[in-house]
Amino acid sequence: MNIVLFGPPGVGKGTQGEKIAAAHGMRHLAMGDILRAAVRDETAAGRDAKTYMDAGKLVPDAVVVAMIEDKIVADAGTGFLLDGFPRNVAQAEALAAMLHKHDLIIDRTIFMDAPEENLLKRLSGRLICRACGFGFHRQYSPPLKSGCCDRCSGELYQREDDREDVIANRLHVYREQTAPLLDYYQHQEGFFKLDAGGEMNVVYAALQTIVES
Ligand code: AP5
Fold first, then answer.
1. What confidence tier does 77 reach under pLDDT thresholds 50, 70, 90?
2. Which residue has the higher pLDDT, 73 or 183?
3. Fewer CB near the last or first residue (10 Å), C or N of the chain?
4. Structural domain of residue 174, as residue ranges?
5. Which tens digit of pLDDT belongs to each residue from 133-145?
6. What span, in angstroms and rounded, lies between the C-alpha atoms of 93 and 206?
């Protein structure tokens, strides 16, 4: 099965995407994680992307489309869950062309949404493990030991783009560029809307129902 998850920053795409992909044996292809790895490895694409990411802007389409195509093709046999791609209509059109070229389809396109006050609280309290990338939240899913990852004991940090001023810019970019994806997808087969404003386990149960429907 192949899935697209989209929605605003902080809605829980990464948290839920990782769990659902593991439960169904799919690869979790998170565009933000792929870009952050490229920045960390100082690749040419990573150097291009960093300035945009730090400012909360979208990385140019040509850069992200080239990066994701290889991953999609590599994971076509096992199935993949796309999280954070596509993020505008041009990327959705590039994805459609890519799928057609490789004879693939998307089985579910799921739009996750939550009130903006939830998004702000989720983003400002998020902590990430520097070693394994696992996510925590100061209030909603705190680590057992402060500053330390439960899974691998790595150091927890706050993402640069989870600063208040950058969050505001990311939400603006979302409203301007990503929200129009709703019109693009909502009349296509396999589209679902998920209320992601509730607790994590409630959202996960609702997502499972959609995936297994
Ligand atoms: P990316 O990393 O994809 O960021 P994002 O889309 O802004 O999404 P987030 O990772 O912030 O949020 P999420 O929805 O995954 O929430 P999470 O599960 O972590 O992209 C970063 C940047 O890369 C972009 O700004 C852009 O520059 C660039 N980029 C990426 N893709 C691109 C593309 N296609 N084109 C161009 N540029 C691109 O949850 C957040 C927190 O809330 C966590 O702490 C979690 O524990 C907590 N939480 C989750 N669910 C719940 C819940 N139900 N209740 C309480 N807390 C919850």
1. confident
2. 183
3. C
4. 2-212
5. 999 999 999 999 9
6. 28
**CATH number of the structural domain spanning residue 171:** 3.40.50.300
Q: Domain total for the chain? A: 1
Q: Which of 16, 122, 172 to mutate to test the pocket of ligand 1 (most atoms within 8 A of CB)?
A: 122
pLDDT digits (tens, 9 = 90+) for 50-64: 999 999 999 999 999
Atom of ligand 1 nearest to the CA of 121: 42
Rounded CA gap, 65 and 74, in Å? 14
